Amino acid sequence: VQLQASGGGLVQPGGSLTLSCVASVSIFDFSTMGWYRQSPGNLREVVALTTNSSGTDYADFVKGRFTVSRDNAKNTVYLKMNNLAPEDTAVYYCNVKAYWGKGTQVTVSS
Fold first, then answer.
1. Per DSSP, what are the bridge partners of residue 58?
2. Alpha-carbon distance 7 to 16, whole Å?
3. For the purposes of burial, counting CB atoms within 10 Å of the CB of 54, is it exposed (0-12), middle (13-18) or buried (19 or more)?
4. Within 10 Å of residue 78's Cβ, how many Cβ atoms?
5. Are 1 and 24 in contact, with CB atoms under 8 Å apart?
6. Residue 55: Cβ within 10 Å count
7. pLDDT tens, 54-68?
C-alpha cells in the first residue's frame, strides 16, 4: 500500500489548508485511517482518525478547527484545517495499518 499526501504549504495564522491522501489500493476495507503530525524535536502524534462507519476522532488540540473525511470511491482521505496557528507547523502524515505516506509539510507563519 502506498499513500501519497499532498496539500501542505505555507499559510498565515488563521488561514486554512486541505490535505489529501491518496492510497494506491481501495480503502474500502480499511476500517480506520488517520492523520498524524510531527514537528522537529517532538514525537509523531495523532491528529484525526476516520472510520468506515463515518466515525471520527480528533486530538483535543484540533477539535473544532480540523475536519477529517474520506471518499472510498476515490481512495482518498482528507484533512480540512481551519484557523491554523503557528503550533500547527509540522509534517503531516497519513496512515493506515502499518503503512505511512511520506508526509506533507505545513508551515504556519506570518
1. 48
2. 11
3. exposed
4. 20
5. yes
6. 10
7. 799 999 999 999 999
